[in-house]
## 1
Amino acid sequence: MGPPGAGKGTQGAILGQAMGLPKVATGDLLRDAVKRGTPLGREAKAVMEAGHLVGDDIILGVMREEVGKPEAAKGVIFDGVVRTVPQAEGLDRLLSEKNRTVDAVLFFDVSDDEILARLERRRSIEGRADDDPAAVATRLRAYREQTAPVLAWYEARGGVHRIPAVGTIEEISARVRRALGK
């Protein structure tokens, strides 16, 4: 978990590779659906380009599909998946149906100034429409209003590790491994 640009995708990929688990990122899945022009992609495109969060029902549907895949049988690394309390509750129910749980939550903590600088760099490299300054401002506002309360929801259940998400990729990855006892 963490704000846009906190490094969730980068660290999720590193952790997934190290643990031999697939990384599930709804943002990646939705961007792929947009690129392929699927019905889900068309539905999500306008919402994403405006910097808004895609609805809980779509996200939970994507999660149900991903968790049900054979490669997810031993677990998954969720990358920025749960963005609202209803999504957290829905994911909890979904996993419970499969006799599974969330083992740990990593919260990547980073300042707004750092986020803005990172997303501007990413926009110049990848050209992502959702990294436009206006869309980033909307995403940060949505994060604070809708996603930040999820952190409190998980903290109340235990197992949250706060990771200072500044420094090199390797330094942050080392913090992740220490937090997980790896």
Note: Residues 133-157 form the longest helix (25 residues).
## 2
Amino acid sequence: MTGDIINAEQRHYDTARSLLPLLEPLLLRAGRIVLAVGGESGSGKSVTAVCLRDLLLEADMNAAILHLDDYFAFPPATNHRRRLEDIGRVGMQEVRMELLQEHVDSFRAGATLLKKPLSDYQADRITEEVLDLSDTRILIVEGTYSLALQSVDCRIFLTRNYMETKAQRLLRGRETDDEFIERVLAVEHAIIAPFAAGADILIDKSYQVMLQNSAFQHTQL
């Protein structure tokens, strides 16, 4: 998303680096790989994905990121106004999940170019961009509902909930401290929290990494 602020600190790189030994059996496999990084608002999804991509690039493993925020049907301010009209609109139905799944499947099938939506936070509009995936072997899909995608090789879930992430959310400058946003996040929490049970790797509120399912390391899709 254009205008989003991602402040990567050493501790975030340390967390991403601790993921690498767990991912190593998967990364040694032939072919393209898809990783999903999910969790609630402010949990650290974006910064974890960015740091992981940077470390993979340093290791000569070409990686790219798809941000789920780009796949919302309406741009941020417009989407917020729609939520004010009806909080029942909050959920996965706000996101073009079928398009995101199509793009993940296209990557798996060997697509070299991907035309995708690009959300502009400041201008409150959605444009398009073309990603060159010709040399990309690892696709990281980051976002609140990313663990709902099919054909993912590893699901990484950050367990911090919206009550634990308030200070971090306010620092991003994308949210104000108001009661309605907290209501929205409570609705999202009920949807997102169950994804933890299906995650392969968990990252707790102290950014400690825990392997929950070792089967992903050797499963061939």
Note: The mean pLDDT is 91.
## 3
Amino acid sequence: MLIRPVALRILGVLAIATAVHFSVVWAVPRVMMWKLLDSLGQAPGGANGTPAPFLPPLANANARRVVMPNPDLLYGLCALDLEQGAMIVRVDPKLSTYWSIALYSSNSDNFFVLNDREAGQLPVELRISTTPDQPKAIVAPSKKVLLLMRVLVPDRTQGMDALEAARSSLRCSTS
């Protein structure tokens, strides 16, 4: 049976559309994370040559660096470059309210979360590496990782100093 030229064109258009769709679905999260990690990597002031954590102000209606930020959360971000080896993350929030640390790979997949319920009131030290041979390391699926810390703001009129101190305790370094 002979396929008509119109049917071949339709199949060709469908094949191209499918290829474009899958290419975009694959590329968009990677490009977004690359841009975000690159912009965070430019932040000055970190210890041992690493960038300092980015601590944006409390979100309002104009805040859009993070898509749809929650106005009830303080954020802290670190761009972790595991190219040269493991990175150490330290935080000592000393809070009785919600806080969390989440790690995202270069394609925006979340691969680790720690929160106040799991850590309690104890200081936290995390070793992030791309190889499982590091003792007690969290193994990252990519060499570029985004750390996102969230601290709940239950009341904007009181206790902000303690919340800022908790968020400011975030340290990301090579040792």
Note: The chain has one domain: 47-173.
## 4
Amino acid sequence: MDLSVIVLISIFVVLLFLNVPIAIAIGVASFSALLVTVDFVPAAMTVAQRMAGGINSFALLAIPFFILSGMLMGQGGIAHRLIEFAKVIVGFLPGGLAFVNIISCTLFGAISGSAVAATSAIGGFMIPTMNKEGYDKSFNAAVTVSSSTTGLLIPPSNILIVYSLASGGVSIAALFVAGYLPGILVALSLMFVCAIYAKINGYPVGRIPTASEFFKKTFDAIPSLMLIVLVIGGIIGGIFTATEASVVAVLYSLILSVFVYREVKVRSLPKILVKSVETTAIVMLLIGTSTAMSWMLSYENIPQNITETLMGLSDNPLVILLTINLILLAVGVFMDMTPAVLIFTPIFLPIAVALGMSPLHFGIMMVLNLCIGLCTPPVGSVLFVGCGIAKTSIAKLIKPLMPMYLAMIVALLLVTYVPEISEFLPIYFELYQK
């Protein structure tokens, strides 16, 4: 292994353990590794150029708009309406509140595009409600934490846009549509675990809603759910591109939150705009520094070396894909999704393609895999938010989370080895060809 690679990995790991923000850790590690081979000024210029080039993409324009749309929807009274909608669908089943939690988190995560927002908005209401109904507090938090990640697979999803960039141009529209079935599969897997929990612990059965309640709650939720229909329907119908869809999403969210639901006041819009700008800046810095590290790895032929090593381990594609999944699961434990996608896509995508996997299929597998890392210690952001809301510790949350992890891993293996789960809808709507 070259000295520059050793410097890159060592400095990055040390900075992570020192709790340095990951974007800074990636940038400093990349710059330090380049200093081993060139002087200070060329190293600084190269890293700066790679960072600027990493964010100089038309497709990335969708990210700030989807972030703004998600913030408007997050403060626009959407969470309560989705919860009430989920209650009339599954709330009357044994352990129904757990199902309500999963469906609400999935829908809100898809609408807001943020697993953390879903955990905060839905968990802030559902966890105390489930506590009052006799559900175990740690179990309640575990359900919220694990199900909040499913919305990242269901569009609009910023991480799928990032993967499109890292993969060299896989259709964003195809990725958006491809995420539906895997996202639903993960939600159903978690609901299966909750059904077993409910049976074992004798969790309460909810009241069957009347017809008038069903129609009222459904009608109240339709405007919120229409965002998903509007974005994906417009893309599939060829009315607008994914980037244009992000602008439409902002306009729709603004009208819905300010003028229809009236939960967002006009005077609070500047604060929402500033917050969305701050979040966008963080995401773009991550993308820029991760692009620089990805270039540094390619410069040192790391992807080619890893490809040769993995292909030499076995002739069986199933074994190689399992190995890739295990590596990505380990990466997700210590690294945020955005840099992980940007750094490891150039490394593993060529291997997957050589095994006959389509770039679309690999992208969905990778995102689903890294979603699991959001609810695992030590850096799982969703896990920490869930613990804070439930007022419990990570140690107490791990036990009820273990079956949830298992369910998500089973879903991951199904997505990995059954390509039709990811590819059926994009091919059906003629958005992708293998």
Note: The mean pLDDT is 90.
